[in-house]
Amino acid sequence: MSIEIELDKAFDKAESINVYSNGEVINYAANQKPFKEILVSWNDMIDGAHQMPAYGVSLNRETLKALKSGLWVEFVFDEVYENGGMPFEKLLIQVEKSFTGFNLIRYTTEYGYDGRCFYYDLLNKNMDNLYDILVNL
User: Fold this and answer.
1) Which residues pair with 29 in a beta bridge?
2) How far is residue 121's CA from residue 85's CA, in Å, rounded to a whole number?
3) Distance of alpha carbon 25 from its chain centroid, rounded?
4) How crowded is the C-beta side of 28, counted as CA atoms within 13 Å?
5) What DSSP state is assigned to residue 20?
6) How far is the C-alpha of 64 from the C-alpha of 58, rounded, in Å?
7) I need a surface site. Which of 74, 85, 97, 134 has the fewest CB within 10 A?
8) How far apart (Å, rounded) are the C-alpha atoms in residues 122 and 102?
């Protein structure tokens, strides 16, 4: 059973955050300072953003391969949440300074990273601040 939630409210329910940098992963628990810094930057970035239909779907094997390069942030939840009929236990995002919109890749135990994504348009904002925080942790 999943819990219906507005997507922008889900991030405050995360129990931890994974930061992937060129295949290396570091986990930050909710009680750690980096977790709080990431969450504040994230919430500032998505404030006023528009959730829109995603343009594509994620394929688990391709997403796992993509995680080996670049910078990614993943919000990990202790329950199954759902938005628009799409359940998730984790939400994975590729972080690039210039991005003004991005997919939120859903993860479920049953399907991994396979399936439809969410999409955010940041409306005249970008990922600069979040990127800088993640690379300087």
Assistant:
1) 16
2) 20
3) 14
4) 19
5) E
6) 10
7) 85
8) 8
Helices (H), 17-108: 33-46, 60-66
Helix (H, G, I), strand (E, B) or coil at 32: coil
Cα separations (Å) of 53 from 23, 27, 32, 104, 119? Answer: 28, 29, 33, 11, 6
**Dihedral sign, Cα of residue 65, residue 97, residue 74, residue 83:** negative
User: What is the C-alpha separation between 117 and 101, in angstroms, rounded?
Assistant: 13
Question: One digit per residue, pLDDT tens: the chain, 137 residues?
Answer: 789 999 999 999 999 999 999 999 999 999 999 999 999 999 999 999 999 988 779 999 999 999 999 999 999 999 999 999 999 999 999 999 999 999 999 999 999 999 999 999 999 999 999 999 999 99
Contacts of 126 (CB under 8 A, 6+ apart): 97, 98, 99, 100
**Whole-number Å distance between alpha carbons of 119 and 39:** 18
